[in-house]
Amino acid sequence: MPLNAIDLPPHITVDFHAPKELLAQGTTAPELYDWHAKENPSYPLFMYHDGGKHEYITYAVANLAIDRAARYIASWVGHTPKGDAERPTVAVLANTDTITYFCTVIGVMRAGYTVFLVSTRNGPAGVADMLQKTNASQMLISPDVAVRQVAHDTIGLLPAGQLTLQTMPTFEDLFPKDSKSVDKAFEGGVELPETYDPNAYALILHSSETVYGGFKDPPGTRNQSAGPIDGSHRSAVALVMSYEVDTSRSVMGCHGTLLSHGLGAFLYVGSVSRRDSQERIPTLTSWPCAGPFSRKPVNGYVVAAFKPQTPPRMPIPSAVWEGLATTKCDYAWAAWSITYASYEQEWARDPDKVHAMRQMRGVFFGGAPLASEIGDALASQGVNLYTVYGLTEVGMVNLPVRPNMGLDWSYFCTNPGKQVRFVSHGDNKFEVVILSDSNLPLPIINMKYEGQDAYATGDLVVPHDTVPGLWTIFGRTDEQIILSNGEKVSSSTLHLAPAENVAYRAS
C-alpha cells in the first residue's frame, strides 16, 4: 500500500507538491532537485531496510548529497564549463549501491558536465571504444578489483594522457553522519553553475546495441545507431514515464535496476516530476480503460533500494525479492538479468511469492521478453504485469502503468508523447518506427518516413485480435527465420530456451 503518515517517522511527510509550472516552462534535472529540496524537503526520495527498520532519505538530504558529489567532481575536473565546446565528459564505471550512484550522476550534471554511464558488463576494448566516441577525459571508478582492472586496461588502449581516473564517492562521503566525518573534498568552496542550458548535453547512455560490446554494426548495415547516445537536459527530463494510474506515495522497488542502462535512466527524473495534461490516446474498446483518458505521468514515487554498502549487494533474484519484501513495495521492477532469464520466472515457481506479487499494485518487466507461459500463469493468478517498452534511442514507447490487463498483459498502447508509426512487414507483423519531434529531435536518425526524420527500431509487433490500438512484441526484423515450409519464426524464442533451463546457466 502507498505510504501512510501513521507508519512513518515524524520528520517524514506524505504530501508531495508537483513541479507543474517548472516543467511547463522548461527545466533540468539539477534544477528539479533544487526545487524539491525547497518545496518537498521532508518527502522521501529513497528508502531502504537496514536489517532492523526502514530508513528514509528525503529530498532535502538527497539534494545535499548531490551538491557534495558536484563539488567533489568539480574540484577534481578543475573548471566550470561555459559552453558545450569545453564541457568535459565524465564517465562513470562503477559497481556501487543505487543511492550513491544516483546522487553522483545528478552531481555530475549539477557541476555542469556531461555524464556518460558505462556498464560494468563491458570489457576494456568496449569501454575504450566508447570513451573515444564520447571524448570522455575523466572517469569515476569504484574501488573493487574487477572495475579497476578494466579501467587500467582501458587506459592502455587509449592515447597517452586522454583519460584521468578518480575514485567514485562512497555513501558515507555523500551522507556523512556528522560534521566530524565530513571530507573537505566534498564541502570545498567550488563555484557551481546557478542555471543550466536545457539544450546542453547532459547525459550519455549506451545504445540498445552496446550493452555488452560497445562496437558498431558492420559498415553498410541498416542499424548504424550502435554506440553511445548523447542527450540534452531537455532529453533527460523527457525520460519521465507516462502512467495511466496515480502512483503518488507509492514505493517503487528498484533493487534489481541497473542505473547505467536505459531501463534505469527514468529514475533520475521520473521520481521527481509530475505533468498533467489532457492528451488523448485512441479509444480502446473492450479494454478495462476503454475510451479517451488523461495522461498522468509518475508523481513522487519513492525509490526503494538495497541498504548502501561496499561492495554493493548482488541483485540475484532471491536478494531482490528480499529487498522488495522488506521495503513493502507497491511496484516491483523486475527487468532482465544477465544471469537469469527474468526475476519473474524465478519467483513464479514459488506460490508464496506469487501470492505476494498478487498483493502488489504491479510488477514491471522489460529489457527482454517474458516467456508467455510464465506471464500467463502469473496473470491468471491475479498478478498485475506491466510491459515496459522503450529504447535508449527514442525513450519510452509505451504507457507502462495502466489498469490491470489480465491475460492481455503482454499488450501495450503507445505513449501519446511519441509519434509512433507501424510499418507493415507482411503476415500481420509491423515494425515500430518513431518520428523525430522538431521540438525535441531524436538523437539517432536512421531513415526517412513520409519525408520526416525517423528511427526504425527493428522491433516487430502484432496487433491485438479484437482491440484496436493494442500491440505486442513479436521479435526483431533481423531475427526472422523462414522455415522450409515457408513459416516465419523468431530466433529470439530459440535463444530464450537455454536461458530458461537451470542446467545451462553456468555454461
TrEMBL record:
InterPro entries: ANL_N_sf. Transmembrane segments: none annotated. SUPFAM superfamilies: Acetyl-CoA synthetase-like. One of its GO terms (biological process) is fatty acid metabolic process. GO terms for molecular function: medium-chain fatty acid-CoA ligase activity. It comes from the Eukaryota. PANTHER family: ACYL-COA SYNTHETASE, ACYL-COA SYNTHETASE FAMILY MEMBER 3. Belongs to the ATP-dependent AMP-binding enzyme family. This is AMP-dependent synthetase/ligase domain-containing protein. It comes from Trametes cubensis. The lineage of its organism: Eukaryota, Fungi, Dikarya, Basidiomycota, Agaricomycotina.
